[in-house]
Amino acid sequence: MHNTTLPIGPQHPSIKEPMCLRIRLDGNNIENADLRLGYVHRGVEKILEGKQVDSALYVAERICGICEVSHTAAYLSAVESAMNISINDKVKYLRTFLIELERLHSHLMWSGFLAHEIGYETLFMYSWRERERILEIFDKYTGGRVHHNVSKIGSNKYDLPENSKKFIFDRLDAVAKHAEKYRREFEKDNIIKARLENVGVIPEKEAKRYCLVGPIARASGYKVDVRKDNPYFAFDQVDFNVITRNEGDAWARTLVRMDEIQESVNIIKQLINNMPNEKLPKPELHMNASGEAVGHVEAPRGENFYYVKINSGYLERAKIRTPTLNNIIILEKILKGYELGDVPVIVGSLDPCFGCLERIMVAKDKKIEEHDEDSFRKKYCEIQKPEVSYD
Amino acid sequence: MGDNLNIIVEAIASLFKKPYTKRYPKEKLKQDPRTNAWLEYYSKKCIGCRMCERVCPVGAVKFIKKGKIEFDMGKCIRCGMCIDNCPVNAIGFNQNFERASKDKKKFIVK
User: Fold this and answer.
1) What are phi and psi of A341, to 5 degrees?
2) Which range of residues forms the domain containing residue B43?
3) Could you tell me if residue B82 is inside a domain?
4) Statement: residue A385 has pLDDT above 50
């Protein structure tokens, strides 16, 4: 097994989405890793161009299957500031409520995935049972478990259903109680600790240098959270803590997410208890709006950033930067020195979403080159990467 | 062993509980009134303003003439834009989701 190059992916059981990792091994240790992407490029920015602003909202919502509320919220925050639309407190509270529900659902699903990666199927099933409770709340409020279709520019389609407070609180209490148990499992269980502790360590200095975002940055002691740094919607009206840890390994990333579940439950309870009694404005079409703005929200994986340029009610340009783009760059570096068996845990602990991430744009000598998939691969994917030292 | 006690207790307790999920299709699923499953088109109400065609994000609406519009449910993403923007409420959603078929013609709502 000396100096073997092992391809993992694009289709591999340990990776949830297509990506290719070429790993150079010395015995069982990883000497070098080379990440190749481009297997699920869908051209979402191009699809958005030329769409009417109200209709484009539903395309933005479908960019990701897990953080669809964050995509909608980032798009809405960009579009509303471009068109100078102010929203009332009720709409702000309802949007914040959905964003936090999504964080719960994403973190619970991820903890199940991680348990599955390390072979702990029981914990996987129990995490997903808790996620089911969150999906029931989504279903009750929006009528959809995955795609919700409730947000509108300047408004919201539905108010919370009548007498739903008990329904939501019962489920949130159950989730908080069980998530605490699973957190203790992740914290105390020797087998889990052996798989996660001191694996894929990212020091704080590196986290800042690579501009990491979300729970991955916070697990390295880098306190970055859009909800606190630049509060949007109703986040300035709720009390919550930004969870950070200093270890920077896969174990810390797990515990940060498990602690964020409790924080999200508290935020949702505050939101429902202080829900304003305002009327939802009637949604309308925006056919003549123009403007240019950016919007960013804290998705479950980190900062989700949108830039939009609107011309006469139609999108002229949309630029999307999802959190995985920031976080995946460090993967090649943190894999070095660990064993082959650690690869699923390290990749899984970064929680990548390649469907949202993939973009192709080449700017060279101030000229933008246009490529189809084949010519792009031929020109750029086969070249040898220069050796860069990060130390 | 002591570390895993928590999860073992949880596993034993789960043996005596009902399954959390339902076994479709043996058990029928109860649909929420807000579920967007299938379109309904009331052609008598239609005034032929073509608003549904204009706002559809995926181009699933084909306008033929007033009172005759075809909705391709194979393309539809159930966003409800046509329903929200119809001035005479000639379009609506129902909760009938069991519509899987090999025949493409069954996906056209007229």
Assistant:
1) -65, -15
2) 22-109
3) yes
4) no
From residue A218, alpha-carbon distances to A74, A198, A245 in Å are 21, 16, 6
Query: Which candidate in A48, A285, A287, A315 is best for mutational testing of the B interface (most B CBs within 10 A)?
Result: A285
Contact at CB, B32 and A189, closer than 8 angstroms: no
Find out if CATH 1.20.1050.10 is the number for domain A44-321. no
For the stretch A97-143, pLDDT in tens is 999 999 999 999 999 999 998 988 989 999 999 999 999 999 999 98
Question: What's the pLDDT tens digit per position in A193-246?
Answer: 999 999 999 999 999 999 999 999 999 999 999 999 999 999 999 999 999 999
Rounded to the nearest angstrom, the minimum Cα separation between A113 and chain B is: 17
ipTM score of complex: 0.89
> With an 8 Å Cβ cutoff, are B79 and A51 in contact?
no
CB contact under 8 Å between B7 and A149, yes or no, is no
Find out whether A288 and A54 touch, Cβ atoms under 8 Å. Answer: no
Q: Confirm whether B11 is domain-assigned.
A: no
CA-CA distance, B59 to B7, in Å (whole number)?
A: 50
A144 touches chain B (CB under 8 A): yes
> A314: which chain B residues are within 8 Å (Cβ-Cβ)?
none
Highest mean pLDDT among A255-259, A352-356, A373-377: A255-259
A115 neighbors A250 (Cβ within 8 angstroms): no
> Domain map of chain A by residue range?
44-321
**Beta carbons within 8 Å of A164's beta carbon, 6+ residues apart:** A140, A141
- CA distances from residue A100 to A7, A52, A244, A297, A373 in whole angstroms, order as listed: 37, 28, 18, 11, 37
The pairing of strands A302-311 and A314-321 is: antiparallel
DSSP A378: I
User: pLDDT (tens digit, 9 = 90+) per residue, A145-176?
Assistant: 888 889 999 999 999 988 899 999 999 999 99
Contact B56 A188 (CB under 8 A): no
pLDDT class for A387, splitting at 50, 70, 90?
A: low
